[in-house]
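Title: Request for sanity check on HTTM-like domain-containing protein prediction

Description:
We are preparing a figure and want to confirm that the structure record we downloaded matches what your pipeline produces today. Could someone re-run it with the sequence below and paste the raw structure tokens into this thread? We only need the token string, no images.
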Amino acid sequence: MKRPDKRRRPGLLPALSSRGAQSSRGIRASIGSLSTLSRSKALTWTERLNSVTHLLASLEYLTRRKDREWGGANNWDVNRRMFHEQAPRFARAMDLVAHPRVSTALHLSRAAAAAALWLPLSPRQRVAANTVLAGSQAALHAQHLYGSDGADQISFLVQALTTVARVSHRRPAIADAALWFVSLQSVLSYTVSGWAKLPSDTWRSGRALPNIIRTHTYGDPDAWELMRRYPRLTRLAAHGVLAFECAFPLVFAGRGRLAPYMLGAAGAFHLVNARMMGLGRFFWAFAATYPAVLYTTGPRVRTAPDGTVSRRDDALPGTVAAAGLALLAAGQAARAHRRRIVTRGRGDERTVTTSAGNTLAYRVLGEDVLSEGASGPVVILESGMAATTEHWERIATQLARRFTTVTYQRAGYGGSRYQAGGEYHFDAIVDDLTEVARHVAGDRPIVLVGHSLGGYLALLAAERLSAQVRGVALIDSSHPAELQRSIRQAEGGRALTNSLALMPASLDLGLGSLLECPAWVNRLPPEARTTALAQYRDAKLWAAARREWKVVKEKFERFDGVLPRITAPLVVITAGQTAVTDTVQVDLHDEFAAAAPQARQHLIQGADHDEILTDAGRAAEVSTILTAFLDDLRDASLGDDSQNGGERR
């Protein structure tokens, strides 16, 4: 028997190693060729990949007739009402486009143009096909108001810019600007998505992915079962998504060397989403941006195989960077101006330094009322979280006509400064309120009035101030059990956690001017609006709210069911919208009333949580209720004094 020739074996490894090296060099060369994508190829592949999104969208429309019937997401009879109310002339044109024959013809032409872009067309033919796609998508968008998604939005942006680039094919600078715009939008989309998820505890804990996969809309039973069985891998995947999206700007690092790998990972991510969540068009819509990313992250100077040298025009990113720096500078100037408005306040603030070291600003209204009122109770108004004292403007003005009325800003809000050292605790909020009350009232009786979180704080302060508190009024108050018993409040709490994680840093960057003026500011009296809006856009208010919410959330989630001891008469006022949208809150307000020795309850019909204070009509109703409550307390106090020899306190 012939023995194996062992001398041949050592030669096998070098051969395999040589083939592996050649294969590796081939892969690197293929990836390197992606980074040197020419302008022409970048445009061609951008429009081809994007055309698939259009083709799929039109095929979905043509094969899903039920979506356009009554009750469907794209039924024009529903969408047209909004257009006819807001833009009647535009709506008449949309009525024509929405005719079944016209819509069908547009979708057929759209599908034909999308397929044609994969053929070797002439420049003019490509311009025509791109124009058909951009125009038809714009014309048909109104019909898909409730059926469109992010894939439709990104595909339209890519299509519009590709059309501009093709129309201006003799001006390379315009084509480069269009490709730069697509590239920057792609990078921004991924990056913003990651940073928006980062504050979410649901994403950081890894619960987000199984929660999404378990839903009816995006669910996949097999994928959910795998995630349930392997929680650590699921958490790792969630963290991987966060890290990848947040780090997406690295496609520009190292002259684009990472771009092909990162785009490959992004494409794989969308393929997984297409399989598990049914988001097939998202893959093609975002993949259509990848050629532009490769083109803009690659070398600026390119040499074609025939020796032709081309130079990419980078005027757009330079312009964007300059505009960004200018906006940042303007934002910082506006931020400083708002801060001056906040610290200046209304001009009549006083300050008190609490035992914790906080300096709190407060206003006293109604000091010059009739002697009868001046010797009566001091009414102290406690605000909700992330709220300004200007919320009380209408009610405080009304009460101050007959009673000494005090508003103050908690530590960190407005002109108040948070200077306490050590770890922050929930009791610190109540401590400050109690000290303010004792400081401004002296020996006079106190009535505490609180809105939202301020209602619960008022109850806790009343328990500490004991007999000096003659009454407590709760206006659409928070209840310490609301996060445990109300699904709506629990969901709102999670959303608030995410918002508060982003707001202070965003406003510190000078983005406050982008924060839309809320409706409640415009409902305030004119003299209070400027200060209120400046506070609302001030980072310190949101930093204070974030600090408060952390300890409030912990306390509410651990609430043991025992309410503060209520010994004074109580009035509970509920906003009508609160009662309608969250019946649990009504039960919780009933519990407040049941825990008091004397209690009255009122419902302000139609008012929401903010309107109950800021709307002129709603605030007048609340003021009337509070005035009657205060009068009753005064009469009861006078009756007690007469029984005790006529002495008045």
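Thanks, this matches our download. The chain has a mean pLDDT of 87.
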